[in-house]
Amino acid sequence: MSVPVPHIIAMASDAISGMYRFTIPIRALIHRGAATGNVYIGTTHQMEIAPRSPVLLQRQLGLPAAVITALKMHGCRIVHDLDDLLWAIPDDNPNALSFTSEMLATMDGQLAAADVVTVSTEPLAEALRTRGYEPVVLPNVLDPLDWTVQPRRAVRSKPRIGWYGQRSVHRADLALIEALVRAVIDEADFVFLGDVPNELADLASRVRSFSAVPLPLFPAMLAALDLDLMLAPLAANAFNECKSNLRLLQAGMLGYPVVASDIEPHRALPVTRVAQTPAAWIAAVRDRVHDPGALRREGETLRRAVHAGFLVHDWVDRYLDGWGGRTAVPVHA
What single-letter DSSP state applies at residue 22? Predict the structure, then answer.
């Protein structure tokens, strides 16, 4: 007689957070035969409720309280996930306007109603402890099946240095590397995936830029950039200190070495950490870009570290424990 497995329902706030917080571990659980489930992007009232199974929520501020009540009546375990310190979004980040005091009060109410709160990092957990919660830390992990395409490692006269992201939410972060790009532009080729910083508009003809791609294409596109070095600037503030090391994980899957700001998300993996000054960034990059062999070795060291501690197959059991799925009964036993 087969043992019933939980049917996990997740409602993610957006596709990117949903992929890393829900889809990757749920997919691995399905592949293992340890769960069934579905991930919805946004708020839905049409989900198939599985009595006594986990329901995962992420920033579902528009979800009526009656839905939570109905889920609890069915014996569902309500899990609320956070992957950002929403109470400390920097003023120059446009997302700050999306989280008014009323919305944050609603968030507090939803967290209080949850059976468990999960978070992506220990600093974020500590910040929530000061608000009276006892969250479970489930770090972001990657699935190697998503990262089968690797860089070409072409031979070239100049190293390729890259950054990816949206400039609108990384203004303070990108300010850290403006002077670096200007100082090293004759010594390296700079590549931007997503947005080129507005402050570098006068150099647009001297850098390479690519539009953002849909999430399923991102690993292959990042590999196609064929970088010799990746940059991970993060301004020092409470919001960034609570962020995960996802950017470093992605770089490591491709064997890209990284120069990163010396703040908490970057301290658990072997990357070059630098102070928040233009001179420190310029020196760190110049020390590396003219030794491609050393860059490759740094990238391989990071790859090994990511494979040793941040792949989904090593974490799915802990995800299932954190979500409470082991004691659940599915709809379709």
Answer: I
Report, as an integer, the average pLDDT of 282-288.
94
- pTM score, whole prediction: 0.93
- 119 in Cβ contact with 83 (< 8 Å): yes
Q: Kindly report the CATH number that applies to the domain delimited by 7-141+312-327.
A: 3.40.50.2000
- What are the start and end residues of each CATH 3.40.50.2000 domain in the chain? 7-141+312-327, 145-309
Backbone φ/ψ region at 131: left (φ over 0), alpha (ψ -120 to 50), beta = alpha
| Domain covering 145-309: architecture | 3-Layer(aba) Sandwich (3.40)
Q: What is the pLDDT of residues 168-206, one digit of tens each?
A: 667 888 889 999 999 999 999 999 998 888 889 899 899
Q: Which residues pair with 77 in a beta bridge?
A: 54
Structure tokens at 124: 């974020």
